[in-house]
Write a structure and sequence with these properties.
The complex is a heterodimer of chains A (about 475) and B (about 625).
Chain A: H1 2-16, H2 19-41, H3 47-56, E1 85-88, E2 91-95, H4 108-121, H5 129-133, E3 134-135, H6 136-149, E4 153-157, H7 160-171, E5 177-181, H8 186-195, E6 198-202, H9 207-223, H10 225-228, E7 233-238, H11 250-260, E8 263-267, H12 282-286, E9 295-299, E10 309-313, H13 315-318, H14 321-324, H15 326-329, H16 336-351, H17 354-370, E11 376-379, E12 386-391, H18 398-414, E13 417-418, E14 420-421, E15 437-440, H19 447-464
Chain B: H1 11-19, H2 36-51, H3 55-73, H4 103-108, H5 117-120, H6 131-139, H7 147-170, H8 190-199, E1 210-211, E2 218-225, E3 234-244, H9 258-271, H10 286-299, E4 303-307, H11 310-321, E5 326-331, H12 336-345, E6 348-352, H13 357-370, E7 382-388, H14 400-410, E8 413-417, H15 432-435, E9 445-449, E10 459-463, H16 465-474, H17 476-480, H18 486-500, H19 507-529, E11 541-547, H20 549-561, E12 564-565, E13 567-569, E14 579-584, H21 591-608
Parallel strand pairs in B: 3-12, 5-6, 5-7, 7-8, 8-9
Antiparallel strand pairs in B: 2-3, 4-10, 9-10, 11-14, 13-14
Classes of the chains: A alpha/beta (about 475), B alpha/beta (about 625).
EC number (chain B): 2.3.1.50
Family (chain B): Belongs to the class-II pyridoxal-phosphate-dependent aminotransferase family.
Cofactor (chain B): pyridoxal 5'-phosphate
Amino acid sequence: MMGIQLFNELGSIFRNTPTYALVLETLLLITVIALLLHKRGGRGLSKEQQESLIEQYEPEPLVADTDPDHPLLRTRLVESRVGKRIVVNGHNCLNLGSHNYLGLLEDDEILEEACKCLRKYGVGSCGPRGFYGTMDVHLELEDRLAKFMGLEEAIVYSYGFSTVASAIPAYAKRGDIIFVDEAVNFAIQKGLDASRSTIVFFKHNDVQDLERSLQQQEKRDQQNPKKAQKTRRFLVVEGIYMNTGKLCPLPELVELRKKYKLRLFLDETISFGTLGQTGRGITEHFNVNRDEIDLISASMEGSMATIGGFCVGSHFIAEHQRLSGLGYIFSASLPPMLTQAAISALDRFEREPQIFSQLQERSRQVHTQFKLFTKLKLGGDELSPVKHLYLAEDRESFEVESKLLSQVSDKCIERGVAVVEAAYLRNREHKPIRPSLRIVVNRLLTDNDIRETFDIIEAVSIAEL
Amino acid sequence: MGNVDDDGATFQQSYVKCSNGTVKTSTPISNGHIPNQHLSKSWRDVQQPQQQKEPQDDHEEELQQLLLNKQLKFSAPAYTEIRTRSGGLNFKGVSESSYHPAKQAEANGYVSQTGSSCDKFKPSRADGVLSAEQEHYQKTSFEDVPLYTACLTYLGFYLLMILGYINQLLFVPKVATEKGREGYVALYDAFESFYSRYVYRRVRDCWNRPICSVPGDELVLKDRVTDDYGWSFRFTGTETRCLNLGSYNYLGFAAATGPCADDSENRARQKGLAYCSPRSELGNTQLHIDLERLTARYCGVEDAIVFGMGFATNALNLPSLLGPDCLVVSDEKNHASIILGLRLSGATTRVFKHNSMRDLERVLRNGICYGNPKKGGKPWDKIMILVEGIFSMEGSIVRLPEIIALKKKYKAYLYLDEAHSIGSMGPTGRGVVEYFGADPKDVDILMGTFTKSFGSAGGYIAGSKKLIDFLRTNSHAHCYAGSISPPIVQQIYTSMSIIMGEDNTDTGRQKVQQLARNTRYFRRRLAQMGVITYGHEDSPVVPMLVYLFSKIGAVIRTLTTRHIAVVGAGFPATPIMEGRIRFCLSAAHTKEQLDYALDVIDDVSENLGLKYSRKPRDPHPIEY
């Protein structure tokens, strides 16, 4: 019964439809089917054509030839335990190249505790944090770091480079806008790439330039308020810039953050454990409340003299990385003995807060002394333990400068001072960086050391340049 | 029995400790229903071996009895319809000899690994139907989910979501609100934060469990409880000793004693804990160079380069190798680090179905024939096939011989990520390349990690000298990231020398064989039980399908109360429907430990209804 009724219904629909409509609809149907079939068939290359294309296809070689004289191929050989002194290529040198600001690398107490930890947990953790790679030392370190910084939550990564590179894309996604200082280090640049957000660079440490681009963005937002409501805005800066040795103007940046409702991410890779009365970084130095900063990240491969990195922030923000920080979830956790070394380093930070002012004093001394080079120009802040020595006069190209500087570096090492040229992948940096010798100040340097170093570098640079 | 690890406390010793006094078995977190009598009964089972002189036979008799019963139950076979996920395949160009599992090696010891296998592998089109390749198929199982379970899984998932939404409407705790950022654009995507707070939180206790021991054959869990339904945890101060089926300790090199730990400690005392500098500045030492040479020798290629983190090895080197004009053909189940590396490289990525050679060939063909659509069909600069040796969530093994044949046919490059397979596959532990008897030089880029089989941290890339020189001058990690810490390098060096037999013992070979044996035994017993496992018979990663989201939690919690630590994976790490428990086997496990685990798993899967499989079951006892 139902079937017949339905048939009649359909029949009546057909009868009541005008002919032109039927014709049109039939044509439409045919077009749709034709389109569908066409798509499925591809762009009609016959089997033979395909075979000949495959036959003809010649790919480029997997990698280009490498220049055998490339500076990165002939790296220096370190032959001793690293500390204030270092044996490089057989020369016993004073070390101004390793990022061992506080001299904790040669601390035997830390080493002892790390070895004890090795005897409890073994070397590797054999699993990511989620899958039984969380040892109690990791939790203790996170707890201690959060307390040390006076924030709610810390999260430890197993590699310094991956820390900030994973933290940024955990929050910033496609469609968001990130305002970034143009001198940021390579790890941050990779984090920006991974986020796929719109990146707006502003001139190095130039707050006016940043404000200008923020105002431009504000205008754009007014034109499209709907989109603006969904666009997250981030500001990413470094405490002390690895590539220039300069401090960021944090108080001004915090003002802009409030005014334009940005979220401020601060990379304290160098400034953590070096700035401030008690080593709590650039926030302490400028006396900025740490709640004003949304996320602080730092590597532990500097002042803490171990491996890895961490992020600290409010629970609301930092906790998120435990589910979306790629380098956190998908990587094996930090080997427990290195975690213990970080805990022991924190112990030292808390027990002997005078080490920070000692380091700052040394940085100042080095700064005043190193300003006096005749052939080299010092860059960086006087408080920063990382400084750059550029050629005083510009040469025709960065390659030439780089070559000259590595000659200087080699000669310095031969004469007992380990200074190295900062290594960059020139073609991959966002913006070409001027070659420099990167000077790293160690807390344990004496007045005499600084003077001697100065004399040697001065003599070598005059001879070579 | 056969436990070659120095630190490995044998089964009896360790569980005696547990049963004497320190029975803190019932973790308060568990809410899976565990019949208490069962628990105590199984404990008696476990304790039996140390009380009697010949418990083995008793046990086996019991087992046979059990199996007999089961067979009776299954007198009418229920295997009318068994489907595998991907259809059959008629790929021509792979010779039989390219499929050789590890079993031969047990008989005749060291198998020559490089060079000689070259002539064995000649793609010949004359071959008809390939039995060897079908053998691989047979060993790889991806049994389809029963329709009923699939429906239940979706229903269960949506129920969880609905409950979550109600929960979100009614109770928003303080932690879920941001302070001091009023008027800002919300930081998180609404669904993402909803999911992690109201769905994942219900089973949050099953992950990130803190341990306080070596992650060896056993581990010690730090007990924790939650007073607020998973928002936060507090420690009870007690500890639970568990059999470890969760860590990637394939060869059992995670140890606090023994040659690796001794060497590492010495090295740390001699060279300190770090260099605080990248390799390119002041972080390059003889030890790093030696490790690179050893790795190259281990992989049978010209040169290698090592990095401090396995994840970063993929993520930071793929961008140097690929550019925007390259096409990458990537397996759909590839690891997140590869996906991130591809994203950073800017190359065009096309995904092929997991381990499906037919789909791979289709993608390659299309890639060559139609070129780069963004540049009007201009041919791609390079085409690279990206696969893993063992897929960590699927437990399947890459079909390397076919991929090598395809790669040659279509002139593509091959990047093989051996994160899980290096050390754990092949007669002497050289990974899937050796397992298939392939020539390592046919794989353009061999990548692997030191985290798993070597019990350390870091990763490597091995290949031709030209490739490695290029990476030394272009790799992000080599230029900017910190150099590997001396004790970590030493652990890799020592464990690798042991695997290679360069310490003049056969400890390494024994370990590799023990793992292969454990793997076969464990997988077969699981199949016999009737649970669905994924992957290849020889892969030490064993995912057991439980499908339902809530069952993941139930299994992990129940197994913890029975002193077994396992890993679960659910959405979003797997498709919604395919919640799973993953076991990672280790050479440190003894037969007794595995038997104990299997008995408990049998019991638990009976209780929780995990025996989904409709395949015929082997009625005979499985030999170890």
